[in-house]
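Researcher: Hi, I'm a grad student and pretty new to this. My advisor asked me to get structures for two proteins we've been looking at. I'm not sure of the right format, so I'll just paste the first sequence and hope you can take it from there.
Model: That works fine. Here's the first sequence with its structure tokens right after it:
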Amino acid sequence: MQKKEIVAMLLAGGQGSRLGILTKTKAKPAVAFGGKYKIIDFPMSNSINSGIDTVGVLTQYEPLALNRHIGIGIPWDLDRKNGGVTLLAPHVKGEHGEWYTGTANAIYQNIDYIDSHSPKYILILSGDHIYNMNYAEMLKFHKKNNCDATIAVFEVPIEEANRFGIMNAYENGQIYEFEEKPKNPKSNLASMGIYIFSWDKLRKALVADNDIHEDSDFGKHIIPMMLEEKQRLFAYKFEGYWKDVGTIESYWAANMDLIVEFPPINLYEEFSKIYTNVDHQPPIYTASTSAVNRSILAEGCEIYGEVYNSVLGMGVVVEEGAIVRDSIIMSDCFIGKSAVIERAVIDSEAKIGNNVIIGTGENIPNEEKPKIYDTGITVIGEFSVVPDNVVIGKNCVIYGKTKPEDYTDGVLSSGKTIITETEEVLA
């Protein structure tokens, strides 16, 4: 097998529990974004746009949707005999299988895959961030500074730095200390979870730490170990758009960023396009009764009603008299006549009945998951059905084929949940 200078390892096995029912049946990187994309499309596209043609995708939680989406990597030009994309799930070793128990442990379990390409450098990526980045520039920085590890950092407001892993560095960029969510941060350089390592140094660290920590993690174990050993770790400042879409609110906000007059992330730049795996769809149709303003409509949408400040996936139908506002409607959803949808996230293939109102009332946190659903956004799960003539409040959660009798007097008050299946799991 031909040697590769650099191999990318994309960590895509996370459950993303803070996204609630959006990740009930799929891993966080497989969640739809921006009308036609999946979250994982961003690091995948960044890799090929940066000239990296060997990508290992590490899957674990609910991998089916992700596996189907990636396939053999054709949309990203990663269907190659030498290199290309490889899906790497936990597998049996000896008598027992072994789950990935930490970010570094996941890489440790795939040392043989990496060694088969004999890379000089290894790029570690998270599969759940929205950004456009040229990793080739980061690699140049790594080589120029003769680094053992280069960590991409993003400057955050100092008052928010206590929510991140913070890299404290000298003026030349060399890191002297790492603090995980410090109470009194010394800097505002937040780790993006993007690393380039010299493979020989990382390999030794992975083997050594595996003997100590079963849940070996880059932030908790590998980086502190390398700092303690006085290895050369440098911070690479990234100045573009970067968003961790780990919560319902941040996911909604990142989608809304796409519809402003001058979006902070450009999905149309010739040399940094975001590629995805989608079927061919008919053109968008807007009827004489329709009105659309500051919204993204993916291919195949049929709009007979009104859409404002929203992102609609492929094949969405909005019937006459319906109003969709400040919402994310994923692919193949149906919005019935005279329905009013405000500040909602509706997952794929859901059906909203006629005269339904979603997003009204007080902003009361969800009773069952108050830390997940607390910003006024109501979430409807994939394949769900909402019957005609019901009123749904804020921070509500609906999953399954609901019926009129599931709604007391035709109302689901703010903060309430309906899950019409035996295993009542929100995340």
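Researcher: Oh nice, that was easy. Here's the second one.
Model: And its structure:
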Amino acid sequence: MANEPRSLPAGRFKRFWLEHDGQNIELRRGNLLVGRSSGCHLVLEDSMVSRRHAELIVTDDSVTVKDLGSVNGLYVNARRVEGSQRMKEGDTLQIGQREFVVRSFQRESVPISSDRQHVETLHGESLDEDSKSEDQTHVGDVFDVLGSVADKVLAMDRGEEAERILSGVLQSILREAKEGREVPVAIAERAASYAVRIAWATSRANWLDYVIDLYTLTRRVLPGKVVDQMYDVVRKARGMHVASLRAYVAVLEEHQATFGPAERFVVQRIAGLERVVLS
């Protein structure tokens, strides 16, 4: 029986999401359909997935998966589900050729009304009717959880693992900026800092390009400490896009009259990165 929309009481409740191939797919409270049909909440473009393959029943403290009579079935921890099964943190869910890992963390807050749906496709944009403040709160929460894990991994110089952990949330922040949604200053700074650290640990310049793209879209001056880190990283992670860097500097120079002395100095430092990249 479908859950009725309701406002949950204040207190302890959980956030749930699925990890898949570097993406984090949030599971909002309610009944979410999974399948190939565009009418599903989670659309999987996979020939082994039925049009209406499964249902995820999400409450404030649990996630249950239910087979909707699919041809190829669904599996939790490599065992086929007969009917429905409640899942827990770390469980693997296989639907067609896709494998997901269930993740959760507990919060103490006043949840919002649960009568909204989250629509997402693994090959498209997410469609979300929640307010900006709720999305931004969620991103901050995910950062708090995943960031602490990534910090430990980075301390052990396991850059690729840190990249896998944080890639989903970092890309979601960039996507919000591309959609014209405001990215809070603190979240943008954390995203930039982690991206630079991942670039250093993996020697992949695309994460430096990520930083430039994010701050070009937000039209803000990068924090000085992040710029200082980039001077070291560009010598190790070769291949940063000079054209993107120049475009960012041009945006900053258009607004330079509104900057104070400290910000103008940072803009000069950012412009100076080009010489290092080309050296």
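Researcher: Is there anything I should tell my advisor about the second?
Model: You could mention this: The radius of gyration is 21 Å.
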